[in-house]
Records
---
Amino acid sequence: MSFKFAAKEIGLNRATEVKYSQKNVRRMYAWQLEQAKVQDMDTQISTAVDNGEDVDSLIRKQYQMNIDFMDHTRAFMNDVLKLTAKQLEKFDDMEVTEATNLAVRLSMRLMGMSDKQVTAAMEANSEDEDDTSKKSAPESESSN
């Protein structure tokens, strides 16, 4: 089985066929694991800050984990989609959030979701982030 995947934002205008192969699914899980490690570190740092602990070493570790995650994201996209040098350069020039969202889209498709389901999930996540940012905005900013 396979599915078609296009990413106009990196110049992948013509949908390419992506197989649900063990190799691609393994790459997806490895990428998701790296993402989970970054999220775990964020939680560790928040807990340490809340407890008044020194977080310098954790922050240095977080920097390296973020670099590793960006490298894994790049490799995941390149390996699964077989990007050209130009497409990979466009991917590298994307903002981090945009690049991660593109990888999330690909990951969701590899988990068997349809384009329609992926779009709905991404929109729901975007709305949740908007709600969260509005709640955390300082009073003076949110009332203007």
---
Amino acid sequence: MAWAILIFLYSVAGGIFLLELGPYIYFTYPEWQIYGGIGIGVGVVAAINVLALSNVSNLSEEALADPSNVLIRPGLYPLAIVFMDSRLKSEILWECANGQQLWPPSEEAGYGGTTSMPSILCTAGFPTIYVVFIIALLVDLAFQLYMFFMTWRYEKLLQHYQSMQPTIGGYYKA
């Protein structure tokens, strides 16, 4: 359960970051909202996973053990984000070179609101941020795969729970 809570925390934090500061990284209108929404959605699935792991219901485990929930999303989502970041390198560099202001076409369209671009994106440099971003997405993929394994293992335990027999000391043998 602690693993699912960790995934919940960093997914929701990343989703909120993208929803708030996404216009400085992605310059097409719904793009940052889509990625932020996916991050929040992953957090919701992780929260449901916490509830499912604390319950003995086989139904919730079967729903969460579906490979599409955990294997397809973390595999395709990072590829799209990395591709978009590499495509938008010149716009991000322009924002850093011009006092961290929003890219002019985005500003004309009314994106950005009252926030300003985080200075860490400019001081670290685009290549460093890009590499850290790729590493973070790979770590997320590993975390998601491990969470899928733990959910699958718990589901199998619940399926075979009826056939287990208690032994002395409280352990079960199949």
---
Amino acid sequence: MIAHVYIGPLILWSILSTGIVYGITKSALYRSPIVYAALLPAVFGLLTTIMNTVVYSAHSLYTFVEKQVAVNIFKCLYASLAALPGLIAYQRISRQKEKTSGRWAVYLGFIYVFIVTVAGIVFACINNYDVPKSDSLRQFITRGNYGVIGVFALLLKIYGKRLPEKAKITLLMYTLFYMISEIFYSVAYDAHYFMFDPISVALVQCPMFACVVVSVLYGHIWSMDKPLDDEKDESESELEFEDEDDDNENDNIEASDVTDNFLQV
């Protein structure tokens, strides 16, 4: 029987993974590198929940240790890979707007995510065995994604003023959710909270879930181009102004005709 602490995260990540796959198969809007990248943390988040359920129902110590390694690897992957949608979006933006600093910041972000992911996998493999471990490596793993938050903040600073309003707001939301999840993950880790404690679920997994959801729903507008809805609103307002101008011209013509007739009389 599944413990109640796993039910919430299991439902969340199952719905998200299924929803992303459904969206990709049904709509071309979601067939983009950003959504494909968002599918990775969703899948690994689901696998982390499933493996945790299996681990804590294991009956032998060997099985527990063996599967706990997989749990730690999946947990590292889902947290690190959640940064990919944002980095891919900024890569697209950097191609639209020639800024060398922004482009190098994006490359730095990709390299940093790769380093953190590899270090996390290595640490996960040795964490449950009697192998000497470096405290500095442990601190880097628990706080490593702070560097990604710094890269996102730098990129928002570089491109924020020139991004469309909706793109800027949703990218900021994405960054804030990611930051909240990572900060409270390190706090929960230092306080020895279990990953599926209600506090950890509310402050670590739910913000990360929201981060991925935002990237899926709004990733298609993360560019320098204005969303189609905004363009449509602008075109409609322009038509309204044109109609008003035409009405004013007609009124002026009628008024001039009346004046001419009066003078002729």
